[in-house]
Amino acid sequence: xxxxxxxxxxxxxxxxxxxxxxxxxxxxxxxxxxxxxxxxxxxxxxxxxxxxxxxxxxxxxxxxxxxxxxxxxxxxxxxxxxxxxxxxxxxxxxxxxxxxxxxxxxxxxxxxxxxxxxxxxxxxxxxxxxxxxxxxxxxxxxxxxxxxxxxxxxxxxxxxxxxxxxxxxxxxxxxxxxxxxxxxxxxxxxxxxxxxxxxxxxxxxxxxxxxxxxxxxxxxxxxxxxxxxxxxxxxxxxxxxxxxxxxxxxxxxxxxxxxxxxxxxxxxxxxxxxxxxxxxxxxxxxxxxxxxxxxxxxxx
Length: 300
Prior knowledge:
A 6-stranded mixed sheet has the order 4-3-5-2-1-6, sandwiched between helices. About 55% of the residues lie in helices and about 10% in strands. With about 300 residues, the chain is α/β, with parallel strands linked by helices.
């Protein structure tokens, strides 16, 4: 009897788990439904067709919205803003920012990943002026590319939906501007905190690799619960993100998007494509939409 009850409980939990990435948004005065899909910027574009209902949802919508309108990044001025935000202040280089011991650990890591390090003048010239945060991002991408041969950084999953819209005569929009993303994503931490997190990344590769693998597996399984668990993995050290950092990168942005979504959806049926990490949890976009009075149901 106990075994039967346990099996039933597990079955109910499995059926109620958000094991999908695409959700339909309806009700609350909407004349036609909109949709929201969780993306992962390093996923293969071919994975799009593994998401049930994705083509019909795209066809039913008149516009596509992302975190940012990617076409703005074709503007040389906007590109320059992003590049400048990734650079250390004039006169500052990593070898001045890091201690000699920290530089030794950085060089050892770079040698294992790239076969070269900052003692190479060309490498130092290209990477020695990047902020620690920008360098961590580059290392994450390079690690991923090393583990996943054939990955094409010019053909990203995130961009697919906006490209699809443009090719099919649909309008494209974004929640955020380049200036906003520069401020939040690149200038939201002090250099000391960025340096601390860079060294955390370098010194805890086993954890970082497991974390990245869990995020990817959760995404490809279309399991938002597993994805949320992966994002919430902790080392219980200063390397963990603080509540303030989580709020800045995830929660505050979710809340801001919810102030914009009602008007966007009322104007036109809209297909929203945002990072999957923004969807689950009490402060996730799906729950915030429900709290705002919308019906939100997974598309299967």
